[in-house]
Amino acid sequence: MDQNDDVYLPEVLFEMQPNGRFIRVTAIDPRSGVEVVSVCDATYPIEMIKRLAARKLKFVLRKRRRQSAAGRASGPRGIVV
Prior knowledge:
Elements lengths: L12 E7 L2 E7 L6 E7 L4 H29 L7
Antiparallel strand pairs: 1-2, 2-3
Protein backbone atom coordinates (compact mmCIF):
# COMPACT_ATOMS: atom_id res chain seq x y z
CA MET A 1 0.00 0.00 0.00
CA ASP A 2 1.25 3.45 -0.89
CA GLN A 3 2.06 5.70 2.08
CA ASN A 4 0.05 8.57 0.51
CA ASP A 5 -2.94 6.26 0.18
CA ASP A 6 -3.63 6.05 3.92
CA VAL A 7 -6.83 7.48 5.38
CA TYR A 8 -6.73 9.57 8.55
CA LEU A 9 -9.74 9.05 10.83
CA PRO A 10 -9.59 11.36 13.87
CA GLU A 11 -12.98 10.10 15.02
CA VAL A 12 -15.08 7.01 14.36
CA LEU A 13 -18.54 6.39 15.75
CA PHE A 14 -19.45 2.81 16.64
CA GLU A 15 -22.84 1.21 17.15
CA MET A 16 -22.89 -2.34 18.47
CA GLN A 17 -25.94 -4.58 18.45
CA PRO A 18 -25.53 -7.98 20.11
CA ASN A 19 -27.45 -10.79 18.48
CA GLY A 20 -26.87 -14.18 20.11
CA ARG A 21 -23.31 -15.32 19.48
CA PHE A 22 -22.58 -12.40 17.15
CA ILE A 23 -22.29 -8.61 17.32
CA ARG A 24 -23.36 -6.36 14.45
CA VAL A 25 -21.02 -3.36 14.38
CA THR A 26 -21.65 -0.17 12.44
CA ALA A 27 -18.65 2.15 12.03
CA ILE A 28 -19.34 5.72 10.85
CA ASP A 29 -16.99 8.48 9.71
CA PRO A 30 -18.78 11.62 10.98
CA ARG A 31 -16.97 13.92 8.53
CA SER A 32 -18.05 12.13 5.36
CA GLY A 33 -21.09 10.25 6.65
CA VAL A 34 -19.78 6.96 5.22
CA GLU A 35 -20.74 3.92 7.24
CA VAL A 36 -19.88 0.25 7.07
CA VAL A 37 -21.39 -2.77 8.79
CA SER A 38 -19.45 -5.76 10.12
CA VAL A 39 -20.49 -8.89 11.96
CA CYS A 40 -18.10 -10.31 14.55
CA ASP A 41 -18.03 -13.13 17.04
CA ALA A 42 -19.30 -11.91 20.44
CA THR A 43 -16.33 -13.55 22.20
CA TYR A 44 -13.86 -11.12 20.59
CA PRO A 45 -12.62 -8.29 22.82
CA ILE A 46 -14.42 -4.97 22.21
CA GLU A 47 -11.19 -3.21 21.18
CA MET A 48 -10.53 -5.86 18.54
CA ILE A 49 -14.08 -5.50 17.20
CA LYS A 50 -13.65 -1.71 16.97
CA ARG A 51 -10.26 -2.08 15.27
CA LEU A 52 -11.67 -4.48 12.64
CA ALA A 53 -14.64 -2.18 11.92
CA ALA A 54 -12.34 0.87 11.63
CA ARG A 55 -10.08 -1.04 9.20
CA LYS A 56 -13.08 -1.85 7.03
CA LEU A 57 -14.17 1.81 7.12
CA LYS A 58 -10.68 2.92 6.05
CA PHE A 59 -10.74 0.38 3.21
CA VAL A 60 -14.07 1.71 1.91
CA LEU A 61 -12.93 5.35 2.17
CA ARG A 62 -9.67 4.51 0.36
CA LYS A 63 -11.59 2.69 -2.37
CA ARG A 64 -14.01 5.60 -2.85
CA ARG A 65 -11.13 8.07 -3.04
CA ARG A 66 -9.41 5.98 -5.74
CA GLN A 67 -12.65 5.64 -7.73
CA SER A 68 -13.36 9.37 -7.60
CA ALA A 69 -9.78 10.16 -8.68
CA ALA A 70 -10.05 7.69 -11.56
CA GLY A 71 -13.38 9.19 -12.61
CA ARG A 72 -11.92 12.69 -12.78
CA ALA A 73 -8.90 11.47 -14.76
CA SER A 74 -10.88 9.61 -17.41
CA GLY A 75 -13.14 12.51 -18.30
CA PRO A 76 -16.84 12.38 -19.14
CA ARG A 77 -18.47 9.01 -19.61
CA GLY A 78 -21.12 7.88 -22.02
CA ILE A 79 -21.96 8.53 -25.65
CA VAL A 80 -23.14 11.85 -26.98
CA VAL A 81 -25.96 11.35 -29.48
